[in-house]
Amino acid sequence: MAQENNNSLFPKGEKLTNGYFTGDAFLKTLLTKDKNNDFVIGSVTFEPEARTNWHTHPKGQVLIVTEGYGFYQEKGKPAQTLKKGSVINIPENTEHWHGASAGSHLAHIAITNFLGEENAVWLQPVTDSEYNEVNKNNKL
Amino acid sequence: MAQENNNSLFPKGEKLTNGYFTGDAFLKTLLTKDKNNDFVIGSVTFEPEARTNWHTHPKGQVLIVTEGYGFYQEKGKPAQTLKKGSVINIPENTEHWHGASAGSHLAHIAITNFLGEENAVWLQPVTDSEYNEVNKNNKL
Q1: Of the partner residues B30, B38, B89, the one whose CB lies closest to the CB of residue A87
Q2: Is B118 on the interface with A (CB under 8 A)?
Q3: What are the distances in angstroms from CA A73 to CA A92, A100, B12, B75?
């Protein structure tokens, strides 16, 4: 189970079973798209080693990290480390992944913009080789 | 000084001196408006007794409370209490205020949508009488 305690900002929510994640990740939806807000907001909690598939967002996404330690990596670039208070402004149509480190869980708020009715394009899993390389280069 | 410690999600940022707040409030800007994000994101920290003026947002605002205890009140309605994890979806063109309780600080993330170049219309201060009434009715 992902670490969770009374200090967590949000409950973990429901386990994600959509096939777009490796390992165990959970989603607590905070806000759905409506006439004023052309985005969804959710809190995503990744257990250690859990991460998204590679994916893109047609109109970008903003991550606000609320606890733990993890990574954000754009294809072909070094990973950026994520910790409490990190804010990442993910550009449109940019292949990337995010998730927990091997040694810690990660929780972040995600504000995901829509382009029409679409807000994400899901691609291949992040391989263990890709993931291990990032962990090796970014020890806590 | 507002309470702040190593557990705070964000630093307090800069003291707000725009005349639209009563008491001491602070803003840490997290994200500015850009081509993908038609909103600004900031972390606002209110010292005890600090609150916004009454105001409206032409395209609404989302609040995500990160610590403390406070209030959100729409004109003519009972106040809602705010605590860590509270999410408020503020409708467009709806007169309201938010802020700390008399006995606690409050910190929230604010995602403020734009309508064209405008994102807020500032009105009169929340009087001590209005504020004290809300505190009296919502003791921790």
Answers
A1: B30
A2: no
A3: 14, 12, 28, 45
Distance CA B46, CA B31 (A): 19
Residues of A in contact with B66 (CB under 8 A): 9
Beta-carbon pairs below 8 A across chains A and B: 57
SS3 A88: strand
Confidence of residue B1 (pLDDT cuts 50, 70, 90): very low
Q: Which domains does chain A have, with CATH numbers?
A: 14-137 (2.60.120.10)
pLDDT classification of B2: cutoffs 50, 70, 90: very low
- Judge: B85–A41 Cβ closer than 8 Å, yes or no: no
| Arithmetic mean of pLDDT, A79-101 | 98
Between vectors from CA B116 to CA B114 and to CA B121, what angle results, nearest 5°?
Answer: 60
B85 in reach of chain A (CB within 8 A): yes
Confidence (pTM):
0.95
As a dihedral over the C-alpha atoms of residue B108, residue A109, residue A42, residue B7, rounded to 10 degrees, the angle is -50
Q: Could A64 and B85 be called an inter-chain contact, meaning their C-beta atoms sit closer than 8 Å?
A: no
Residue type, A20: Y
Average the pLDDT over A81-87 and give the result.
Answer: 98
Q: Which of B63, B105, B103, B55 shows the shortest CA–CA distance to B86?
A: B63
Q: Residue A63 has which token pair?
A: 């991550």
How remote is the C-alpha of B46 from its chain's centroid? Answer: 8
The ipTM estimated for the assembled molecules is: 0.95
Contact state of B62 with A31 under an 8 Å Cβ cutoff? yes
- Residue B132: φ, ψ to 5°: -65, -35
Per-residue DSSP letter, B2: -
